[in-house]
Amino acid sequence: MRTITVGFLGCGNIGCGVWKLLKEFEGDIGHRAEVRFEIKRILVRNIHKKRDEIVPEALLTTDPAAVTDDPEIQMVLEFMGGEEPATRYMLRALEMGKTVVTANKMALALNWHLLQAAAEKHNAGLYYEAAVCGAIPVIRTTIDSLQSNRIEEMMGIVNGTTNYILTCMSQEGKAYEDVLKEAQRLGLAEPDPTSDVEGYDAAYKLSILSSLAFHARVPFDVIYREGISNVKAVDIAYGKELGYTMKLLAIAKRRGSVIDARVHPTFIPNDHPLASVNGSFNAIFLHGHACEDMMLFGRGAGSAPTASAVVSDMLYAASRETPRHPTFHNENALAPGLRVTDDWHCSFYIRLSASDRPGVMAHITTCLGNEGISIRNLMQRDAVEGRAQIVLITHDAGECSLRKALSAIDCPDVQVESMIRVEGK
């Protein structure tokens, strides 16, 4: 049986989860893969901190070089999170010829080009299944199982915190602020929830997934991003009446040389497979020209699910004689020959507050019609204090045309209260 010596960069929830899984599953791993992982050194900030798992203090160090530069350590696992110093430490490990396995979507999305260049130069492995959707093997599926497909579209619920919040808002009718506080109390949302609720986390993951799916680098900074902090319970309720469920979706589409990449709150029909993905679960729905529609679903976060993906990468790396890297041109810019559009096409949900008097509806339909936009569904609520609530769903329209129409509609008699994109019909 072969022994691979391992070092950890970080030992928080995920690191402890990996430690536990390697110890509990050691016999099965050895039997199935004929390999044994020996953990030699673990980088931590505080050696004396109490941890979920009993990690021998003799393995702990506060010196990153004790992990990255030790010639006996063959594989480095990174669990630190954030861009720095994680990126710097991973680069050093790769420069020393060590295989790196990471769960760090931010460091990878922002510095993938640097990490892959170092890995290729020094014939080192770089693996990151755990960086996107926890235990769901979406990266391995994309680069291995779907090689014979041209993936044209993917839509994903890739952030468990926002999915939990939107699920509670939908099922309980609560306001965003109240559900966020509850999620923070339960430990499902961070004290500073910005990365999750403003869509940064989902955009990092979409950068990775869309690059692999389209075989072309789609950098984080070209992705349109809009979070859920302005979502209103009233819009979720109106959407339910019209047959829609709201999710924060990471969406990527490719048509020839044109890329459409965005993260934002989205209404999808109640019978769409993603509509039933509730709580903190994640899912990716994709379409390939040969496989057609496919969905991967499971736990997208948590110590044990993420540890499952990390150990899977460890075994995958151990089974390969030579490292495997993406074949696309990996630079910190959109791949040559491609362009990103900000004029994507979909349907739109629009909620308006309008004066209850003649001519108002004509004004609305004229402004939409001037931009070639037609109405598919319309719902009006009785006026309160002289103003009515008008909710409508458009047929497919361009984003730029829709924004022009809304700008023209907005006036003292008609105010645009919200606009939400509609996908998956």
> What is the domain total for the residues?
3
CATH superfamily of the largest domain: Dihydrodipicolinate Reductase, domain 2
Please describe the biggest sheet, giving its number of strands, its sense, and whether it closes into a barrel: 12 strands, mixed
- Radius of gyration based on Cα positions: 24 Å
Give the end-to-end Cα distance, rounded to a whole number of Å.
Answer: 53 Å
Q: So what's the oligomer here?
A: single chain
Overall CATH architecture of the largest domain? 2-Layer Sandwich
CATH topology of the largest domain: Dihydrodipicolinate Reductase, domain 2
Low-confidence stretches: none
In one word, what is the shape?
A: elongated
Class computed from helices, strands and strand pairing: alpha/beta
Number of helices: 14
What is the average of the pLDDT values?
94
For the secondary structure, the number of strands is 18
Question: Could you estimate the helical fraction of the residues in percent?
Answer: 25-40%
